[in-house]
Amino acid sequence: MDFDSWNEVKKRISAEGMSRVTCAFPKKGEVWMCVLGKNIGFEQDGAGETFSRPVLVVKKFNNQMAWAVPLSTKQKNIDFYYNFTDCEGRDVSVILAQIRLLSTRRFKRKLYELEGHHRVEISKRLASYCL
Hints:
7 strands, SH3 type barrels, 2 helices, single chain, alpha+beta
């Protein structure tokens, strides 16, 4: 596990946030590259030196926080994966069970906006998981 390297990245992100106003303003339905870090167990990790992976913004609360779900290139036919083909023709899955609250400091760059019919279906599935 590379928790020490992740801790250094996390400290840098925190320091950058203290010195400037965030310039990332993610909106519902957008896919962003996001710094998720090194996580525990089966939680989705980020990859590479920046511990990043694409996420779908499912709800924006304000300019500092949003709910997001990680994306994967591994498609599975189980109820908490939503499989689709992205705008560049890649097979992608939204891992609905791994929704999490994220600081917008973690959002690095917008990749694309998800088509409306996918957003509607993802919203329905997420709503069905609530008690």
